[in-house]
Specification:
There is one protein chain. The chain has 13 helices and twelve strands. It is an alpha/beta fold. The strands form three sheets. A seven-stranded parallel sheet has the order 3-2-1-4-5-8-11, sandwiched between helices. Belongs to the NAD(P)-dependent epimerase/dehydratase family.
Length: 388
């Protein structure tokens, strides 16, 4: 299978390229390296030093015998994206080329606008490029469980749901109530892809994934093959952030009451799930929504887990709840239906507690590097201020 990964330089894009290449698939990647620059913009950097893309690709060839074709390009450039798709005619395209940080989108009007322009433009460009080259190409778009919000009912694994209003029944897209400009941009991506499926019969997997954590996959066997690892308050997911706080002797910082509950999945299990979905595409012309989570935990439960594992490794770890900079429910119902991935053979291999130990062990040698970024770990982006 020939797979084009848009956003190959990212936390998920790079290990997915290694996984697919190792399994014998042909991999082409596109990235404009925006995330590297945006992370530096907020005063942070990846915990692990990242070689330039060309160096990473050379290392993948030398260490894993994996060949990757790379283009340094912006997916907002329709002509460039079309040319790449036309040249390689992939069987599947993975769409990771989006601004992926909720806090980043909430900094001010400029960051909000960038998030919408980048994410929606890239998706529309992808739709029209596929229409022009080959409408049978399978699109795997990375959505987010955050599109749904935290409703007081089960989150079904369904694109549509039947409703009744004043005695009249109809089907509508499954309700979504996002919690940041980033998450709303993902909702609109979903609607745009659903529309493209309805009008032109495009084949789409829209994967709603929970927060991903971890430093390792089966292919990351050398320092030169590491994926990026973000930990600051803008770009770092909660598990990754806690682990760096533990390494630096900073208190772990659950926001507010700490009852915010989500479905988490390890980096390794995410790679397994994404690979399964690519190797088992939906029927031609089908729009398939997939909920991808593993362990459902609150941010306080995760903090206690990091504290326990950290102390077993000789770290002194404290927990200090801080004012929540976000606008979100801090205690809520959360139950997610997930049937498609198990039906395709997906079996999660990793438990968060075990992975936290590996994460701490992998991060410890970089403590002096992490020390330089202490000032960007605690929350600074207040979503209520709405700066312009």
């Amino acid at each position: 299978m020939r797979v084009l990964i848009l956003g190959i330089d990212g936390y998920l894009g790079w290990p997915l390229a290694l996984r697919l290449g190792k399994r014998g698939h042909e991999v082409i990647g596109v990235d404009n390296l925006y995330t590297r620059n945006a992370v530096r913009e907020v005063g942070s950097d990846s915990a692990f030093p990242l070689p330039e893309p060309e160096e990473r690709i050379a290392a993948a060839k030398k260490i894993l015998d994996v060949n990757i074709t790379f283009y340094r390009a912006d997916v907002k450039d329709y002509e460039k994206l079309y040319d790449i798709i036309q040249k390689h005619k992939p069987d599947a395209i993975v769409h990771f080329a989006e601004q992926r940080s909720a806090p980043y989108s909430m900094i001010d009007v400029h960051h909000a606008n960038y998030t919408f322009i980048n994410n929606i433009t890239s998706t529309i460009n992808l739709i029209y490029s596929i229409l022009k080259v080959d409408p049978t190409i399978h699109v795997l778009k990375m959505g987010t469980m955050g599109e749904y919000g935290t409703p007081n009912y089960d989150i079904l694994e369904s694109a549509f749901v039947e409703v009744e209003i004043k005695g009249k029944k109809d089907k509508i897209p499954f309700p979504k109530w996002a919690s940041s400009w980033y998450h709303w941009s993902k909702v609109y991506d979903t609607y745009n892809l659903m529309w493209a499926n309805k009008v032109w019969g495009l084949t789409i997997t829209d994967i709603m994934q929970g927060p991903v954590y971890g430093t390792r996959t089966e292919e990351i066997i050398d320092e030169k093959l590491r994926t990026r690892f973000d930990f600051d308050e803008v770009w770092g997911t909660v598990v990754n952030r806690y682990c760096v706080e533990a390494i630096l002797g900073l208190p772990l910082t659950p926001y507010g009451k700490g009852g915010q509950t989500r479905g988490f999945i390890s980096l390794e299990d995410s790679m397994q799930a994404l690979t399964i979905l690519l190797e088992h595409p939906p029927n031609q012309g089908e729009y398939r929504v997939v909920n991808q989570i593993h362990e459902v935990l609150s941010v306080s439960q995760i903090a206690n887990m990091v504290k326990e594992v950290g102390e077993s490794l000789g770290l002194k770890v404290e927990i200090q709840h801080v004012k929540n900079p976000r606008v979100e429910k801090e205690e809520h119902y959360y139950n997610v239906e997930s049937k498609i991935l198990p039906s395709l053979g997906f079996t999660p291999k990793k438990k968060m507690k075990d992975e936290i130990r590996f994460m701490l062990e992998d991060l410890m040698p970089y403590k002096s590097r992490l020390e330089k970024f202490k000032h960007v770990i605690f929350p600074r982006t207040d979503w209520r201020k709405g700066r312009s």
